[in-house]
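hey so u asked for the seq, here:
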Amino acid sequence: MNTQNTNPLGSRPMLPLIVRMAVPPMFSMLLQSLYNIVDSIFVARLSSGALQAVSIIYPIQNLSLALAVGAGVGINSYIARNMGAGREEAAKDAPAVSMVLTAVHYILLASVSCLCIPAFVRMFTGDPAIQSMCRSYGYIVMAFSFGQLFHINAEKLLQATGHMTAPLVLVLIGCLINVVLDPIMIFGLFGFPAMGVAGAAAATVIGQIISGAIGTWLIARGTCGLPLRRFRRSMISRQVLRQIYGVAIPSSMIMALPSVLVAGLNRILAGFSEMAVTVFGVYYKLQTFVYMPVNGLVQGIRPIIAFNYGAGDLEREKASIRISLTISAVIMAAGALLSQVIPVPVLRIFNSDPEMLAMGETALRIISIGFVPSALSLIVSAFFESIGKGLPSLSVTLLRQLILVLPLAFLFSRSFALAGVWAALPVSELLTAAYTAAALVRELRRQKRPSASLD
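ran it, structure tokens below
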């Protein structure tokens, strides 16, 4: 039987397929971004110091998400490529393998991150009260990060086989739990003790644990279409690990780079004022509303590209890239327009401090210039991950979030002060977009050659 002709990933018209695959994860990613944003909104009602504490911990918190998503993308790509190539037995072993790997990842992540939190916090603030709040929030979200890791693992297994609605429901459950529990646990409502920032962290991990448990249950009962086989050591060979981690490691690094970016820019911004650090923290939460829909689109197109790459259908592969680029550019243009037209009302969601609003308005208007060019980098990076080429994908993200932006921020800050730091971000996006376009054209030309291997 021709798998390509019977599987909708290889036969359904491309635009309706992308819409069906991408819309649920778009909403899912928007809801997932609310975890940290909702915490910040409620925590800001405590004090500016509490908001700063949550912003400082964000890079470490993002590491958990980076590892979970990176491993999930590796499994996702592995399953879709093997299904497209007709290697069904390899795909059926993947759920059991992913569960074991997720448990190992959690043990390593929780141990290392909790050890590093005190030293990390001291790099950004000398205020004992803020340091204490950082530790309270950080220890809880990292020690109980297993909920997030197993939730993301279940989400990627479902998406790899074209099941896009169940992941949305999982995120919705976790987000609703977080939204309901945040004010109760932070401020001590209904007789519950007021826990402050620790309450925000507890509300977050409770939502993650419940959604992770439900997701794991769905995988165990075969909802993803692949059986959860009894794990055997023979399932994990060197070749299997190479195929999974060849995508997972670069993808995790891609997801972790924002943590490096935030930490590096915070060091530069701290030389101007603590308010500059707070403004960047607020911006980084706001920009998730723009980037998360595109990241949801990326989740939707990964299995489509991977399946058709495995099946050797270059025309469908190119069509998926073309359509997803158009959709992502429209989303990013809308985000840039809002940032230019109504930056202050958006910033007031978090804080009404006049200094923060004035500084934040300038930051949003400058940084948002780079939104549209970044769409190309995001889609092409996902393309390389989907076809099992993690290193080219990593190179794109390294350029836009490390190699270019931090040196440019440092240099521009010398000549243009704080505005120079903000300007480094759109300049980096424009330069990376030029590199990304060349890399995409080169890869598609390589695939056209009859001798090119799609394995």
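The mean pLDDT is 84. DSSP finds 18 helices and no strands in the chain.
lmk if thats what u needed
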